[in-house]
C-alpha cells in the first residue's frame, strides 16, 4: 500500500542497530524494544509527508528517529517541546530549568542535529500554524487525557494514507494516553493495522479501508485488555499498590506488547 524503502530490510535492520547505539547513549526513558519499533515504523511509513514528534525531553527518541531519517533520506524530524519544568506528566529535571541545552548537545553528539527542526513551544501552539502532510507521528508529550487527545485532534487531519501513528506510555500507568489510544485510535475505523510494542500503542492510518473486518476485529481485541487497564491506571497516579497492582499484572500481559519485527510490520502495513 505504501511507498517506502521496503525492498532492503537487511539494510534497514543494520541502520536500526546503529541507531540504537546512538539512542542508548542519550538520556531518556525509551526502552530498546520501543526505540527499535520507532525506527522500523519510521523506515516503513510512506515517503510522502513530514515526521513529527510531540515531546522530546533530552532526545532519545529524537536521535533514534532522526538517524533513520538521515540514513534513508526521509527528510527531517520536526521535534516540538517547550523544554520547561516542572510539568504534571513530564520527567523531573532535578532542579534544571530546562532540558533544551542537553537536548541540543545530544543531537549533535549523535550526528543528527541537522536532520531535526526544533520547535521550542507547545504542540497545540505549533498546530495553529501547521500545514504539512505527515507520514509518521510520534506522540510523547503531555500525557494527560486533554493533552494527548489534542495532539491526535490537531494533527490527524494531516496524516497521509498509510501514515503510522505511535503513542508512548499507552501501556504504562498514564490514564490519559491510554484512554485516547483506545477511544481515538482502536475504536476508529480510520485506522487499520494496530498493536503494542513495550508501552507504545501504534496504528496505521487507513481511512479508506480501516473498517474491513480483519482490521476492525484486531483493533477490538486489542481494546479489551486496554480498556481493563484504564481504571487501574486512574488509581495508580501515586504508584501501583496492593490489589490494583495485581490487576495490572493480570491485564497488561493480555495486551500483546512483544518486540515487533521489520518483516511483521512490513506485512501488516502493506
Short description:
The protein has helices spanning 9-24, 32-44, 60-72, 100-110, 123-127, 145-155, 175-186, 213-235, 242-251, 262-268, and strands spanning 50-54, 77-80, 116-119, 134-139, 159-167, 191-197, 200-205.
Question: Strands, helices and their partners?
Answer:
Layout: H1 9-24, H2 32-44, E1 50-54, H3 60-72, E2 77-80, H4 100-110, E3 116-119, H5 123-127, E4 134-139, H6 145-155, E5 159-167, H7 175-186, E6 191-197, E7 200-205, H8 213-235, H9 242-251, H10 262-268
Parallel strand pairs: 1-2, 1-4, 2-3, 4-5
Antiparallel strand pairs: 5-7, 6-7
Helix pairs in contact: 1-2, 1-3, 2-3, 6-7, 7-8, 8-9
Structural class: alpha/beta
Shape: globular
CATH architectural group: 3-Layer(aba) Sandwich
Strand order of the largest sheet: 3-2-1-4-5-7-6
What is the gyration radius calculated from CA atoms? 17 Å
Number of domains: 1
Tally of extended strands? 7
Indicate the low-confidence ranges by residue numbers.
none
Strand content: 15-25%
Oligomeric status:
single chain
For the biggest sheet, the summary is: 7 strands, mixed
Fraction of helical residues: 40-55%
For the record, give the distance between the C-alpha atoms at the N and C termini, rounded to a whole number: 5 Å
Order of helices and strands: HHEHEHEHEHEHEEHHH
CATH superfamily: Vaccinia Virus protein VP39
Quote the average pLDDT. Answer: 94
- What is the CATH C level class, in words? Alpha Beta
Kindly identify the CATH topology.
Rossmann fold
Number of helices: 10
